[in-house]
């Protein structure tokens, strides 16, 4: 016999747990099904983001940055150290504690908001029936007036580089190395490849990043990509674009297992040898096993669930949000979709503006952007004007010994409405939200230019870049 709910959510990651909590806040009887488990084998809510993605990677990025600064920046402040070292297992242990804190925090939020959790794999059947295969092998059946599919995504595996969890790994394995690999290969120069490559590079690994595309960070503004590539090179990251990998073989080496990677680049076919290989070529919707043949929900050619602009699947009462639908695979995009759908179910207005979703890469320097790039505006024939300002001319950035990078503001040539903001530099993951807010309220570059910014602050660079749009920046030659 089925247990009846107003809302059944499949997936306890960012999109799913936001949807479940908001639905419960709105007085709807809500259940959330999640298959995630922690290192101890116990249920762990939070999806990829909290368990093996956003949160643990930022913990390692912060630890590795502290160590890097110790050897590369502290001397500028007059701070000297001798024979500094890092205990990698302690660093990993700190990361694991943070993960446990946040996954446990969601369990407490579920309890406080009266969301009923089910731990196992959920499959949607006809009539909004969800069958849950629980971790103990038992099965329960739930019936939802509404069902929200929030299954998330999973790493794409290359046919010639299968994950073994030891030598060839995805993001999960690269977050758990117990020692710094002497030689680390990374396939893919996207967010995961650059962030985790940076972590182990800072700790002393010789990192080579192989990117099949001929240009570096093609999705970002061209100037941002250029500055980022220059800074990464200074740090010792060896990034090779136009490098198409065709083979990865694990062999016995003098010091244990090693992986021989063959790729074709500018010099023809070459082979590199690594102690570890991180495959970070992207992610795909985790839709396998989610839908029965008779449920009526359709998938597109990339395995994503088809939805309309309101995240509805076309099947009465069935919705889908997060990484398993169209749009960027970003946790914060999933947050907003989950909340929007819960509010739509409750009869309230709910909407997500995909044009103002911020993007961030948490390397050093950080990269962030929102809206259109210059190339996109050119391709779409939109008249625009731009203003930029360097962190090297900002007092706070120089005082922090973080002068690399700049901020660029793009505005419509006729209306002055902000169309995009592109940033590379210290703490731009925080600064980009000025662009998000301005665009959401359809603000202009002049609006930004006339808002008082505290001095000295990194945010002043946004102020100066906005002033530069109309060639009236004070701290640079226009």
TrEMBL record:
Chain residues that bind NAD(+): 188-195, 211, 282
Annotated GO MF terms: dihydrolipoyl dehydrogenase (NADH) activity; flavin adenine dinucleotide binding
Known cofactor(s): FAD
Bridged cysteine pairs (disulfide): 49-54
A Gene Ontology biological process term: 2-oxoglutarate metabolic process
Keywords from the named record: Cytoplasm, Disulfide bond, FAD, Flavoprotein, NAD, Nucleotide-binding, Oxidoreductase, Redox-active center
EC code(s) of this entry: 1.8.1.4
The record's free-text note on cofactor binding: Binds 1 FAD per subunit.
Residues reported to bind FAD: 58, 122, 323, 329-332
Further remark: The active site is a redox-active disulfide bond.
NCBIfam families for the chain: lipoamide_DH (TIGR01350)
Similarity comment text for this entry: Belongs to the class-I pyridine nucleotide-disulfide oxidoreductase family.
Name this polypeptide is given: Dihydrolipoyl dehydrogenase
Source organism of the structure: Lysobacter defluvii IMMIB APB-9 = DSM 18482
């Amino acid at each position: 016999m089925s247990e009846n709910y107003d809302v059944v959510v499949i997936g306890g990651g960012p999109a799913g747990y936001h949807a479940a909590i908001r639905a419960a806040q709105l007085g709807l009887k809500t259940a959330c099904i999640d298959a995630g488990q922690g290192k101890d084998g116990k249920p762990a809510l939070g999806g990829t983001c909290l368990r093996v993605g956003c949160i643990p990677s930022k913990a390692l990025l912060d630890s590795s940055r502290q160590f890097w600064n110790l050897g590369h920046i502290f001397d500028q402040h007059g701070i000297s150290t001798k024979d500094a070292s890092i205990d990698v297992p302690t660093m990993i242990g700190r990361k694991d504690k943070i993960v446990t804190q946040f996954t446990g925090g969601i369990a407490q939020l579920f309890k406080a908001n009266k969301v009923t959790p089910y731990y196992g794999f959920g499959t949607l059947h006809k009539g909004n029936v969800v069958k849950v295969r629980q971790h103990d092998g038992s099965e329960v059946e739930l019936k939802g007036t509404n069902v929200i599919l929030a299954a998330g995504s999973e790493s794409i595996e290359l046919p010639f580089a299968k994950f073994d969890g030891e030598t060839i790994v995805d993001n999960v394995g690269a977050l758990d190395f117990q020692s710094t690999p002497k030689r680390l290969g990374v396939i893919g120069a996207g967010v995961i490849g650059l962030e985790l490559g940076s972590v182990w590079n800072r700790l002393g690994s010789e990192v080579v990043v192989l990117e099949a595309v001929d240009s570096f960070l093609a999705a970002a503004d061209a100037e941002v990509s250029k500055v980022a590539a220059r800074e990464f090179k200074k740090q010792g990251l060896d990034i090779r674009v136009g490098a198409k990998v065709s083979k990865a073989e694990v062999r016995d080496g003098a010091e244990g297992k090693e992986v021989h990677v063959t790729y074709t680049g500018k010099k023809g076919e070459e082979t590199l040898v690594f102690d570890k290989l991180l495959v970070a070529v992207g992610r795909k919707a985790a839709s396998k096993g989610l839908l029965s043949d008779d449920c009526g929900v359709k998938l597109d050619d990339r395995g994503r669930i088809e939805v309309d602009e309101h995240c509805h699947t076309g099947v009465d009462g069935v919705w889908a949000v997060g990484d398993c639908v169209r749009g960027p695979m970003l946790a914060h995009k999933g947050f907003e979709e989950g909340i929007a759908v819960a509010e739509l179910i409750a009869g309230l207005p709910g909407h997500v503006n995909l044009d103002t979703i911020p993007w961030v890469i948490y390397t050093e320097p950080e990269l962030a952007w929102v809206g259109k790039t210059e190339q996109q505006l050119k391709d779409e024939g939109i008249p625009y004007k731009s203003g930029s300002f360097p962190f090297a001319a900002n007092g706070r950035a120089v005082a922090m010994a973080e002068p690399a990078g700049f901020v660029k503001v793009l505005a419509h040539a006729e209306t002055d409405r902000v169309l995009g903001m592109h940033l590379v530099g210290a703490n731009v993951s925080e600064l980009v939200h000025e662009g998000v807010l301005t665009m959401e309220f359809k603000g202009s570059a002049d609006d930004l230019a006339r808002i008082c910014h505290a001095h000295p602050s990194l945010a002043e660079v946004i102020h100066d870049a906005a002033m530069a749009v109309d060639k009236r920046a004070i701290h640079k030659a226009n």
